Structures are given as structure tokens and as C-alpha cells.
């Protein structure tokens, strides 16, 4: 099955995508992670997107659709969790068409509903493992041993360049202007399922399982 996780920055998309990956054998496709990888590997594209991302603006549809197309064409996974993609109406149309061409479809778009005040605390407290990608939070999800990743033991714990209040403001504006129309778009296709993103991580996970129906 193919699932889209929809929600503002800090809603918990990455956190839940990793859980769904383990539980259902799906593959997480995060355009944010792909763009950060391009940025840190110093490719031409990475250099072009770095400044845009750090400011909190969206990169062009052409670039992200290209990244997703490449992944879909080269993966033999049973299904995908789209995390942070699509983020605009043209991206949503492109994804529908890419999947159609592969004889697949979107099974659900999960809207993770949260309010803006909670997002500031989530974003400013976040850090991730540079080795395995596990997502942590200073207060809601700290590592068991300070400075060491619970999952892989790495000491490479990082904070993102765009996780500051200034860039977050821009990211929220971009979300409301360009991404939130996708809620209506998927509702009209009868694919929208809404969960309470403010609940605890485990409770959000249960609501997503409920929205998706039985393990597939
Ligand atoms: P991206 O990497 O996609 O960032 P984002 O959408 O801003 O989302 P985040 O990763 O910040 O949040 P999340 O919802 O995954 O939350 P998380 O699980 O980490 O995009 C970054 C940039 O790349 C964009 O600004 C843009 O420039 C570019 N980009 C990417 N995709 C693009 C596209 N399609 N088109 C154009 N440009 C694109 O959780 C956040 C924190 O909260 C963590 O610390 C976590 O531990 C904690 N937490 C999670 N759930 C809970 C909970 N239930 N209770 C308490 N704490 C929780
Ligand atoms: Zn790790």
C-alpha cells in the first residue's frame, strides 16, 4: 500500500513514517531527507537547494518530483510512505500519475493535525541521528544515554539548520499557502484520514493503524 503523511513542520511525519516502515515493511520516502543528503554531499543540486531550505522555503516542484520519480523507478518495495511529499498541487498530480504508470495508487493520505504553538516546542527541541536517522526530542523523546543514539549507538547527533524560530515561521507560511490545499484535494478523492498529532507518539501510531485498517 502507499500512504501519504500530511502535516505542518514538526507534526511528527518522520517519527511515524519510521514506525510504519518497521511495522508494515513499507519504504519511507522523505524528500526532506533526500534534499539534505544532496546538500551534505555537495552536488550541484545540493548547492542550489541549500539556501532555499535553510530559509524555510519550498524548493521547486521540478527538483522534488525528479527525486521521487528516480526512487520509484529504481525501488522494488511493496509500498511507500510519502513523508513531506507531495507539498503542492502540481506535486500531488505528478505523484498520482507516477503511481498510475506503475499500476499502483495512493491508499490513504493521513492528515496529522496539530496547532502552531506545539510546533515551535517540537522543532526547537528536535535532534536526529546522523547515522541511522532516528528522530529525538530534548524533552519528549530523549536518548537513554546522553549523546548516544539508542538505535545504532552513534555519537553523531545533529540539529537541522532550518530548525530555528525564524525559518520555522517561513515553513509554516509555506505550509498554509501551498500544502494545506492538499487536505481538500485528498478529501475530495475520499482518501483523507485525520489523526490527532498532539497526542503521544504511541497514541498517534494507534490512530494511524486504526485509520489504515488491519495490518496488510
Ligand atoms: P522536511 O524535512 O520534510 O521538514 P518538515 O516538513 O518541516 O517536517 P519536519 O521534518 O520538520 O517535521 P516532521 O513532521 O517530520 O516531525 P518529526 O517527526 O521530526 O522538509 C525540510 C525542507 O525541505 C522544507 O522546508 C523544504 O525547503 C524542503 N522540502 C522537503 N520536501 C519538499 C517538497 N516536497 N517540496 C518542496 N520542498 C521540499 O517530529 C518533530 C519533533 O517532535 C521531534 O523532535 C520528535 O521527536 C517530536 N515528536 C514527534 N511526534 C511527537 C508527539 N506525538 N508528541 C511529542 N513529541 C513528538
Ligand atoms: Zn542512530
TrEMBL record:
Family designation: Belongs to the adenylate kinase family.
Binding residue positions for Zn(2+): 129, 132, 149, 152
Function: Catalyzes the reversible transfer of the terminal phosphate group between ATP and AMP. Plays an important role in cellular energy homeostasis and in adenine nucleotide metabolism.
Residues in Adenylate kinase active site lid domain copies: 126-162
Subunit structure: Monomer.
Name of the featured protein: Adenylate kinase
PANTHER family: NUCLEOTIDE KINASE (PTHR23359)
Source organism phylogeny: Bacteria, Pseudomonadati, Pseudomonadota, Alphaproteobacteria, Rhodobacterales
List of residues binding ATP: 10-15, 126, 135-136, 199
GO MF terms, alphabetically ordered: AMP kinase activity; ATP binding; zinc ion binding
Reaction it catalyzes: AMP + ATP = 2 ADP
Superkingdom of origin: Bacteria
Chief localization: cytoplasm
PROSITE patterns: ADENYLATE_KINASE (PS00113)
InterPro entries from the UniProt entry: Adenyl_kin_sub, Adenylat/UMP-CMP_kin, Adenylat_kinase_CS, Adenylate_kinase_lid-dom, P-loop_NTPase
GO-annotated cellular components: cytoplasm
Domain comment (free text): Consists of three domains, a large central CORE domain and two small peripheral domains, NMPbind and LID, which undergo movements during catalysis. The LID domain closes over the site of phosphoryl transfer upon ATP binding. Assembling and dissambling the active center during each catalytic cycle provides an effective means to prevent ATP hydrolysis. Some bacteria have evolved a zinc-coordinating structure that stabilizes the LID domain.
Amino acid at each position: 500500500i502507499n500512504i501519504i503523511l500530511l502535516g505542518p513542520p514538526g507534526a511528527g511525519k518522520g517519527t511515524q513514517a519510521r514506525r510504519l516502515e518497521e511495522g508494515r515493511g513499507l519504504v519511507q520516502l522523505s524528500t526532506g531527507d533526500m534534499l539534505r543528503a544532496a546538500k551534505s554531499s555537495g552536488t550541484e543540486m545540493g548547492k542550489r537547494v541549500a539556501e532555499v531550505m535553510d530559509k524555510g522555503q519550498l524548493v521547486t516542484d521540478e527538483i522534488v518530483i525528479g527525486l521521487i520519480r528516480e526512487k520509484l523507478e529504481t525501488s522494488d518495495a511493496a509500498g511507500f510512505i510519502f513523508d513531506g511529499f507531495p507539498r503542492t498541487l502540481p506535486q500531488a498530480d505528478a505523484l498520482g500519475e507516477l503511481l498510475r504508470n506503475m499500476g499502483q495508487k495512493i491508499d490513504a493520505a493521513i492528515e496529522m493535525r496539530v496547532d502552531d504553538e506545539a510546533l515551535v516546542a517540537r522543532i526547537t527541541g528536535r535532534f536526529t541521528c546522523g547515522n541511522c536517522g532516528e528522530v529525538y526530542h530534548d524533552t519528549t523523546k530523549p536518548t537513554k544515554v546522553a549523546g548516544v543514539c539508542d538505535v545504532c549507538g552513534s555519537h553523531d547527533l545533529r540539529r537541522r539548520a532550518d530548525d530555528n524560530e525564524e525559518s520555522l515561521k517561513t515553513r509554516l507560511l509555506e505550509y498554509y499557502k501551498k500544502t494545506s490545499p492538499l487536505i481538500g484535494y485528498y478529501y475530495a478523492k475520499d482518501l483523507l484520514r485525520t489523526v490527532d498529532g498532539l497526542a503521544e507518539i504511541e497514541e498517534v501510531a494507534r490512530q494511524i493503524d486504526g485509520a489504515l485498517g488491519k495490518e496488510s
